[in-house]
Amino acid sequence: MGTITNMNHIEKKSFKLAEYTLDCGVTIPVELGYETYGTLNEDKSNVILVSHYFSASSHAAGRYTPEDALPGYWDAIIGPEKAVDTNRYFVISTDNLANVQSNHPSIITTGPRSINPTTGKRWGLDFPQYTFRDQAGIQKKFLNEQLGIDHLYAVMGASAGGFISLEWAVSYPDSITKLIGVITNPQNPVLTSFSVLQHAMRAIALDSKWQDGQYEDDCRPDDGLRLAVQMMNVGAFTADFYEQTYPRNTADDVPYTQINAKASYENILADAINLNIPLIDPSHWYYTCKATMIHDIARGYGSLEQALDRITADTLMISSVTDYLQPTRYNVNMVDYMKSQGKNVELYTIDSNKGHMAGVLDGHLFADKLKAFLQ
Predict the structure, then answer these.
(1) Other CB atoms closer than 10 Å to residue 352's CB: what's the count?
(2) In whole angstroms, what is the distance from residue 330 CA to residue 192 CA?
(3) Is 207 a catalytic residue?
(4) Alpha carbon 257 to chain centroid distance?
(5) Theoretical Cys-Cys bridge with 167: which of 133, 175, 247, 344, CB 3.0 to 4.6 Å?
(6) For all residues of the chain together, what is the average pLDDT?
(7) Of 159, 165, 320, 352, which residue is the catalytic one?
(8) At residue 169, what are phi and psi to the nearest 5 degrees?
(9) What is the DSSP string of 106-168?
(10) Which of 371, 362, 22, 359 is nearest to 160 (CA)?
(11) Does residue 2 surpass a pLDDT of 90?
(12) CA atoms within 13 A on the CB side of 124
């Protein structure tokens, strides 16, 4: 079924669910984008589902055209003869609900800027609260009903994508063989919720153009959004990375004489953020922050331990020891408990000055481990 993927001509597809009932009890229509790499074998036993991190998309590997400046974010580990070998596995990657880059032409998502079919107007803040458990449920419904795939060889994801993968392992333990969580945890740390998520939501909401999410495209709360994006960016890397990537200019006298003058490193970061602001929607960022804050696989199961008891998949957790957003210590706690229950689970750590984003940008540090685990 299917043909060998040309990784220089990746095709973006989409699927629709006429209705899906979210965790909160509200039923909505859903349309999301997805990409596939590799070939589905005859008995459909070689499927690996990849879920993406907070600000990414289903574009996990390859290029849409050979001229694309950059490939998908995990191109270092997904492709022919790579760790996730597309000569062997059929890889499916989907966009998330409320994808933050909803203005990007290659992203297909459903969120607060979508049209509410009941009113004919944008949902705005009437869009229901969703969870990453919902995202897993949507993926399962799509795979089962539209692709005829009932079992996954593996689920994997980085950061928020790992949240979704963990939800798969807890909610649908009989549907997967292997679980790979990269720079992720079973519960979002409270400190992360405060430091880069709650504050980001407030920064957006305090922008006078927010208008309770009912802003027009030509009058968006972009000042608040810029600050929200900066908060996430700063949390995602290490102090050493920032010193190297955003150097100070000690010869610059202007910031020492003018209160509103920006230091050199402020300008460099601001310029980098401004490049992507037109692609990002403030209300989608707002909703994704909340979904990230409330991620907790224990919900509905009594305790974290009871949720972890449900996992039957062989499990590999990959953590960056310099990760500020998803600290390794919570992986240690998870893995230690699962081992005490006799489960096949392992923690593999990496060390990088890229902090949290090492799980995305430094795939070479864990590619061999990942390849061996999948085999």
Answers:
(1) 20
(2) 13
(3) no
(4) 42
(5) 133
(6) 96
(7) 159
(8) -65, -35
(9) T----STTSEETTTTEE-GGGSPP--HHHHHHHHHHHHHHHS----EEEEEEETHHHHHHHHH
(10) 359
(11) no
(12) 14
42, two tokens: 């005859």
Tokens for 140, please give them: 């399962």
Structure tokens belonging to residue 305: 């331990």
Mean pLDDT of 136-162: 98
- Among 34, 56, 65, smallest CA distance to 47 is for 34
Q: Structural domains in the chain?
A: 13-190+296-374 (3.40.50.1820), 192-290 (1.10.1740.110)
Q: Are 164 and 53 in contact (CB under 8 A)?
A: no
Residue 47 forms beta bridges with which residues? Answer: 90
Give, for 29, the enclosing helix (H) or strand (E): strand 27-37
Strand partners, 156: 50, 180
Confidence of residue 134 (pLDDT cuts 50, 70, 90): very high
Which residues lie closer than 8 Å to 159 by C-beta, 6 or more apart? 53, 54, 182, 183, 184, 325, 326, 356, 359, 360
Residue 323 annotated as catalytic: yes
Flag whether pLDDT at 213 surpasses 60: yes
- pTM, two decimals, is 0.96
Phi-psi region of 8 (alpha: psi -120 to 50; beta: other; left: phi over 0): alpha
DSSP string, 157-173: EETHHHHHHHHHHHH-G
- 356 belongs to the catalytic site: yes
Summarised one tens digit per residue, pLDDT across range 312-323 is: 999 999 999 999
Nearest-angstrom CA–CA distance, 209 and 109 = 23
The structure tokens listed for 222 are 């972009």
User: Does residue 60 register a pLDDT over 80?
Assistant: yes
* DSSP annotation of 296: B
In the block, which residue shows the tokens 């540090």?
A: 365
Q: Which of the residues 57, 165, 323, 352 is marked catalytic? A: 323
User: What pLDDT sits at residue 1?
Assistant: 42
pLDDT digits (tens, 9 = 90+) for 112-123: 999 999 999 999
Distance CA 252, CA 249 (A): 6
- 52, 104, 295, 356: which is the annotated catalytic residue? 356
In this prediction, residues 146-161 reach a mean pLDDT of 98
